[in-house]
Predict the structure.
Amino acid sequence: EPEVTQTPSHQVTQMGQEVILRCVPISNHLYFYWYRQILGQKVEFLVSFYNNEISEKSEIFDDQFSVERPDGSNFTLKIRSTKLEDSAMYFCASTRGADGYTFGSGTRLTVV
Amino acid sequence: GNSVTQMEGPVTLSEEAFLTINCTYTATGYPSLFWYVQYPGEGLQLLLKATKADDKGSNKGFEATYRKETTSFHLEKGSVQVSDSAVYFCALSPQSSNTGKLIFGQGTTLQVKP
């Protein structure tokens, strides 16, 4: 069964450093998303991406965040200058609309 | 605004017990409703969904009915197994389309003991 692949599974970074989280969505999907889950809290929507542009973003998704689809397969989330409160599990998801969303296994980001 | 509220966990049951995990929502318009499951160390997997009032979603013995009058989408299973131990998330998509963002509840941890 097709999967959404996220790398790395765990990333530790120092406060103030830039980090890039990578996702490979399912190949025939057109809509891409990032969510995050701070430990013990809800899964929160960050951003959706369609047709090479952001279609919606949440209040969390401020200027420190950016997304990119640099080629036909990868979908990345960049955090420019990480803060301690960015520590969370980050989930990528994709859909082609008809069959629901497929989520990756997540990247656990720890900012120290 | 749009929100989802789930019952607090953890829920601990013996094998073959009946499961209910309550979920209520607040939304404008006609949202789609979902249950996702997260097994330890894995991502979120779609368990079932319903896109309009009175629809019943079902999968792997789990069921949930979209109740517009009570704004609820409670998850039920008649006989749980140890392998059902996981975190369960109720979610809604504010638009009836299948491409809008998902708004999640806080998740309910289910522990099933042999």
Observations:
- DSSP finds no helices and eleven strands in chain A.
